[in-house]
Design brief:
four-stranded antiparallel β-sheet; mainly beta
């Protein structure tokens, strides 16, 4: 992975498989604005520079196999690519400053639906693979969308939608010709804090599979996070289909509807389970596979912004705890409540110091005492660094870090 910058060229050889969250439902409403002016809305950002490189593999890709089984579409560094399923050179089908992800082929294999922020916020978009048309399906920049999926008849897109960063996503369905969409409802109605992801269809469009959990995410979570469910569109009933301690997520069904494949954990590793829906017999399809991220969003964010993998052995090298040869200040709180304060401190040294403040985990970023300490440290003339002065009334705000 690397930073969120657009790149003009890329050659990729990649027989890869990855697990990523998926979709939910919305349908019709007011007709969508399909005028040229509406489709021309793009990010105001301009690319300052470009970089050309060649890659032979990727991690945490979202991909889909074409209906004829001859090619795959996948995302890499915010652009979409197609690739022969036997391998070869990838063809980039989107580019620019917009971040395009989570592509899915239409049932006829002629179009791809994906999530993009090219309008200034996350929305669902459709792309004709012949290059003739790119259409914005949803409007507004305040919602977040996850892993869209086509209905088997190709007339609707089902996607998970939430109203903000910490909102519990629900299933919505949108007509491909436009509209405001419809929230899919169950009987009884799901709790407001139920997060629903990964909509999937088998042969019978009556049933929608998905994964669900309570709450958007949780620090230091233990036990099952997600389980699989099936929603019956005819009667609105929902049935739980897994009870694994290692969770059940990212359901995928075979075209004939006989087999179900989904992600789960065993001990500390992620694997794929396959179930014969006729006999209910289940076994491992692949184990282990690339690890999942069902507890948190932080590793994915770190990889996208830093260009490094969280599994990189260098990040876990004890020698990397050695401070760089410049003045270093650690600001922390013993009342953080989430992060252990002991691991936030620097080892004593002539150009290293620790500053403790009274604050919470979420409040530390805008805490006045923390802001003052940062400003004080940055205001020092270059080459004249001194330890932070806690004398006088400041002792009330900054406890002794060595106590």
């Amino acid at each position: 992975m690397t930073s969120l910058r657009r790149f003009p060229a890329l050659a990729v050889v990649l027989p890869a498989l990855a697990l990523l969250p998926a979709s939910f439902l919305h349908a019709q409403g007011a007709p969508a604005d399909t005028s040229p002016a509406a489709s021309a809305v793009t990010l105001p950002l301009k690319s300052a520079r470009s970089h050309t490189f060649t890659a032979t593999q990727g991690t945490w890709l979202s991909l889909d196999v074409s209906p004829d089984g001859q090619s795959i579409v996948f995302d890499l560094l915010g652009d979409l690519y197609t690739l022969p399923i036997v391998g070869g050179k990838a063809t980039r089908i989107t580019s620019g400053m917009g971040y395009d992800v989570q592509p899915r082929f239409s049932p006829d294999g002629k179009r791809v639906v994906f999530v993009s922020d090219r309008s200034g916020g996350e929305n669902l978009w459709m792309l004709s693979l012949d290059g003739k048309d790119t259409t914005q399906l949803t409007k507004g920049n305040a919602n977040q969308y996850v892993s869209p999926e086509w209905t088997p008849d190709g007339k609707y897109i089902v996607s998970s939608r939430s109203g903000g960063t910490f909102g519990a996503a629900k299933l919505w369905m949108f007509h491909v010709d436009g509209g405001n969409g419809l929230a899919l409802t169950a009987d009884p109605a799901p709790p407001t804090n139920l997060k629903m992801l990964g909509a999937a269809f088998g042969k019978d469009p009556r049933y929608i599979w998905f994964a669900a959990r309570t709450g958007d995410w949780q620090y230091n979570s233990v036990g099952p996070q997600y389980q699989l469910y099936v929603w019956d569109k005819e009667n609105g009933k929902t049935s739980q289909m897994t009870t694994r301690f290692g969770s059940g997520f990212r359901p995928t069904l075979s075209p004939d509807g006989r087999y179900l494949v989904y992600g789960t954990r065993f001990e500390t590793k992620t694997g794929l389970r396959i179930r014969d829906l006729d006999t209910q017999k289940e076994d491992w399809l692949a184990f282990p596979v690339q690890r999942d991220e069902i507890e948190s969003r932080a590793p994915r964010l770190y990889e996208l912004t830093s260009g490094r993998l969280v599994d990189d052995p260098l990040l876990h090298d004890p020698n990397r705890r050695i401070a760089p040869p410049v003045p270093v200040t650690a600001i922390y709180s013993r009342t953080d409540g989430v992060v252990a304060w002991q691991c936030c401190r620097e080892e004593p040294g002539p150009f290293r110091e620790n500053i403790e403040v009274h604050g919470s985990h979420c409040g530390l970023g805008h805490h006045p005492a923390a802001a003052y300490a940062i400003a004080d440290r940055l205001a020092q003339p270059e080459g004249e660094w001194r330890q932070f002065d806690r004398s006088g009334v400041k002792r009330l705000l900054y406890p002794d870090p060595n106590r």
